[in-house]
Amino acid sequence: MNMMSDPNASRKSWLGLLAKSAASDVARHWAALNMTPDHTVLRSPEIGGVMVRGRAGAVGAAFNLGEMTVTRASVRLADGTVGHGYVQGREKDHALHAALVDALMQTDAAETVEAVVLTPLRDAMTARKTGRAAKAAATKVDFYTMVRGED
Amino acid sequence: MYVAVKGGERAIDNAHAWLADERRGDTAIPELSVAQIREQMALAVNRVMAEGSLYDPDLAALAIKQARGDLIEAIFLIRAYRTTLPRFGGSNPIETEDMACDRRVSATFKDAPGGQVLGPTFDYTHRLLDFKLAADGEGADVPTAAPSDAATPHIMSFLDREGLIQTEPTGDAVPDDLTRTPLELPASRALRLQSLTRGDEGFLLGMAYSTQRGYARNHAFVAELRIGTVAVEMEIPELGFAIEIGEITVTECETVNQFQGSKTQPPQFTRGYGLVFGMTERKAISMALVDRALRWKELGEDNLGAPAQDEEFVLYHGDNIQATGFLEHIKLPHYVDFQSELELIRKLRREAHDNISREAAE
After folding, report:
1. What is the pLDDT of residues B22-76, one digit of tens each?
2. Of A132-136, B140-144, B259-263, minimum mean pLDDT range
3. The pLDDT of residue A1
4. For a designed S-S bond to B168, which of A57, A122, B53, B311 qualifies (C-beta 3.0 to 4.6 A apart)?
């Protein structure tokens, strides 16, 4: 299926990025944005748990693996745009920042927010993933067969 | 008669003050930070997350610090904290096929697509104490290589395609949750897997080992063991679609076990499954072996009377918090209970003595 056919693809992508990024990184890039948009907090940051599920035999029916901590928050900008943040962990500011970024990304400020907040977060995530993948690749086994006999 | 006794309060307060002091140890030695435990005692943190059934490395590290390194006590703290969290919902099942693998090995296929990737393993170390670590803790230079873009499909999918392995029943039903409804027997596979993944590592290791030694023998090959990160996705009602809400490290073990044929089915391999939070390889392999042993009924095998086949035995004794709670409560005051036992035994002895005296007199 073409990713572009999902009308929510880009919003999903930034929400996921905000959720998976470290709270301190999100806070730092949010500060760099230097924006103080007028907003009301629709849902104050709330810490909770999400039951993570797996599949029996990796492909079968679902089972409950255990919970993870998640913090969520929602905001409404002065123009009525609503933003939601669902982030991993227990940092309340992380959820608020994510909700504000989500809201701003639906406004004219999107381009700036993308450049100042999301791009560096995405770069950091790619660097982290590539770094681990490179270490893993170095531990890949290259099998070779010992030559037996005289000729 | 039930008699309430008071008077322990001051002693308890003082005991806890001393506990805090002992926890800190010699103040001439720098205090451990939670971040140090999280980063440098990562496998202890992983175990506490898995058996505490809550993925949060910072909380697990804090619990380990508070518990003075007693991991079962730390797991207890995490379980207690977990119950205070409002439940936002359940995730979509994680797709381990898409895992960014730190480690991925197969004991069954040498040339598995995606390759054999060892990752940061203890395997092949000589298990000799490294006194360099006592002197300094310098990080090693880690060799790197160009990351591969190749997919790492599940090894089992190849056997699946050929019909050589029993297929897993699928379905999108919301699985039973033993944190919401008490475990009842017979337990569904979903409940068994949930119970095993949060069960005590030592208990599961012993149970799994017993199957290897011949109790419900079903010789297992590790078709695949993979460790890495997967995204966790959840449907968000206010958005109307699913988003990733985080990323977790998990260990997955799939075993391929001796085949079974029946009147209606040709011989086929069967499978056991282990999936555990964190880098928890021993636990995941143990889980897969015990899962397989517990499946005897649905796979039409005989009950050999082995402990690992007995779901009541395994599921009711594998939880270290339930076990330690019941076990340790017997050290708490039972003065009145014991007083009645004392009185009873004195009475019995008196009667026995009287009987003997009477018989002697006669």
Report:
1. 999 999 999 999 999 999 999 999 999 999 999 999 999 999 999 999 999 999 9
2. B259-263
3. 44
4. A57
Cβ–Cβ of B100/A133 closer than 8 Å?
yes
Please tell me the distance in Å from B100's CA to the nearest CA on chain A. 8
Q: List the 11-70 stretch of A: residues with Cβ below 8 A of B.
A: 11-12, 15-16, 19-20, 46-70
- Contact criterion met (CB below 8 Å) for B67 and B74: yes
Alpha-carbon B86 to chain mean position: 23
Indicate the length of chain A as a whole number.
Answer: 151
Q: What is the pLDDT of residues A48-90, one digit of tens each?
A: 999 999 999 999 999 999 999 999 999 999 999 999 999 999 9
Q: Which alpha helices (DSSP H) does chain B contain, by range?
A: 9-24, 34-40, 42-52, 57-66, 71-82, 132-135, 156-161, 189-197, 201-213, 281-294, 311-317, 320-329, 335-361
**What ranges do the domains of chain A cover?**
3-120
What Rg, from alpha-carbon coordinates, does chain A have?
Answer: 21
Place of tokens 């090995």: B105
Taking the Cβ of residue A119 and every Cβ of chain B, the question of whether any pair is shorter than 8 Å is answered with no
Q: Cα B77 vs. chain centroid, distance in angstroms?
A: 16
Q: How far is CA B138 from CA B123, B134, B135, in A?
A: 21, 11, 9
Please give the helix or strand (H or E) that residue A94 lies within, else none.
Answer: helix A92-104
**φ, ψ of residue B17 in degrees (nearest 5):** -65, -40
Sorted by sequence, the CB contacts under 8 Å of residue B164 that are 6+ apart come out as B268, B269
CA distance B350 to B356: 10
A134 at interface of B, judged by CB pairs closer than 8 A: yes
ipTM above 0.85, yes or no: yes
Mean pLDDT score across all residues of chain B: 92
Q: How far is CA B283 from CA A49, B184, B280, in A?
A: 24, 24, 6
Per CB-CB distance under 8 Å, the chain B contacts of A23 are: none
How many Cβ pairs closer than 8 A exist between chain A and B? Answer: 237
Average pLDDT, chain A: 94
Q: How far, in Å, CA of B291 to CA of B301, rounded?
A: 14
The 10 Å Cβ neighbour count of residue B312 is: 11
